[in-house]
Amino acid sequence: MLTVQLLIAALALVAVGGWLAATDAALGVLSRSDLLDMANHSRSANALRAIAGDLSAHVNVVNFSRIAAETTAAVFVTAVLVVVVDQLWLALLLAILIMAAVSFVLVGSSPRSVGRAHARAVLGTSASAVHVLRVALGPVAHGLVALGNRVTPGTGRSAGFSSEEQLLSMVDEATEQDVLEQDDRELIHSIFEFNDTLVREVMVPRTDMVTIESTASVGAGMGLLLSRGISRLPVIGDGADDVVGVLYLRDVARHTYERPDDADAVAELARPALFVPESKKADELLRQMQLESNHLAMVVDEYGGIAGLVTLEDLIEELVGDISDEYDRDVDLFEETAPGVYRVSARLPVGELGELFELDLEDDDVDSVGGLLTKAYGRLPERGATARIDGVILEAEQADPRRGTISTVIVRRDPDYDPTREPTTGPIVVIDESGEPQDDEGPRLGSAEPTGDVEAGSGPSGATTSEKPRGKKAGGRSSTSPASDTSPTDGAAGKKTAVAKADAAKTGAAKTGPTKTSSTKNSGTKTSTTKTSTTKTSTTKSKTTKPQDEDAR
């Protein structure tokens, strides 16, 4: 008779444990705002408000009660089996197996699934009972939690997320289960990445800035604003580093309408400019521009020079993706010229190149593909300069040796890349027609990494041409500029192409297996092409480019 009573009690405790597990899962799904909303339409309004006011304490009580119910049920089942089964070890083994299966199915898995799927219904019927448990067992549960915090290393245990990675992982899981849309997932990831984004990563580079001299007439300023399709224009004095203000299209239009015959200089209409360091966080700048009602800021480098400019639209696009309108034009940031071979703009962000080849190519020192090639090559790359970087081979296709810039890069996978070994990074030996490595000529950057941003397209300090395209990478950020209209190198026949490190060339490193390229002369121009490259119909992938300032037309 006693054994039957113990079995009935054990089954009842298992049922209670399952109900508590479902309640715990429901509390984990619903937020405080959800609980308060339920309180407005439920008979258990007071209990729901109490739970919302101290959610963690109610969760602790529910977990304590569930563990107590499971433990007691296990003791009852063990006692029954000890009486029924003659051998003690067999009785204990059966008790362990039975309670493990029951706890997993009837307490752990199934009730929690029900609690997550029907959180409002479960909590709506159990809110009063949960609050009663909190009042009755709250001190006991609180004492046990305090004891656990004392004996556990660390501080500040809570039921919340311990890291951004944990929260983002939950977002990814919710997307896989169709709870969140893919666009929502990307927006959430962008928000977290935005906190780590620097202004220099989203700015329009100095070489792409459109500026006007302070002595220019208002009419010239109006013409430049209209031709470029922008609404704000930096006004410079003695060079690009001397920004005296910002010219607004509305001010110019008003002045032209009210005083059409005046020949005033644009400096008289320029408003004070906002200057920010390139190391400033993008989210901090966004808040500052919102507070100061400013839509354009000049970015200053560590030496006090102008590094570029950033607009409010640039910052917003880091969160929501590209914002296009009828003034934007498409610029090809990369195109597939052969299977696995891409022609990319030197301004393409390193992160987007990594996504293209499904590799981790992030580099803290450079932002663009051109900068990545320059860093790995160790000198200002000429046309044909080739380097191996973490699983890909980069080759400068179009370059301007006078300015030390490149505009397009040919990228292909490194056939010798082994992800299990440490990646090989550096220039690749180029073989001339005689089969010998070429001499090392040209100003090398040395073994040290370039100081500052070595990016493709960086030119003279006063360059104020072209516009900036943007490429938004999935789940996050990137802002790029179109490749400059730089023509291929036209030099003398004696001009050298890409050269490997001097010591490697002198010791015959070319014979040990580095990738070889051949050079041919054509009309005085030396061009470097790979032996295995073939010309095929290119598949072009485009992205939208826009002027440096479109956030307020």
UniProtKB/TrEMBL annotation:
Keywords: CBS domain, Cell membrane, Membrane, Repeat, Transmembrane, Transmembrane helix
Entry coiled-coil feature ranges: none
Basic and acidic residues compositional bias, start-end: 411-421
Ranges of compositional bias, category Low complexity: 478-542
CNNM transmembrane domain sequence ranges: 1-184
Pfam families: CBS, CNNM, CorC_HlyC
Region entry Disordered, spans: 405-553
Gene Ontology terms for molecular function: flavin adenine dinucleotide binding
GO terms under cellular component: plasma membrane
Residue stretches making up the CBS domain: 203-263, 269-326
UniProt keyword Cell membrane, yes or no: yes
Topology with respect to the bilayer: Multi-pass membrane protein
Keyword match Transmembrane: yes
TM region positions: 88-107
Protein location: Cell membrane
Domain of life the protein comes from: Bacteria
Record-stated family: Belongs to the UPF0053 family.
Protein name as it appears in the record: Hemolysin, contains CBS domains
Organism (species): Rathayibacter oskolensis
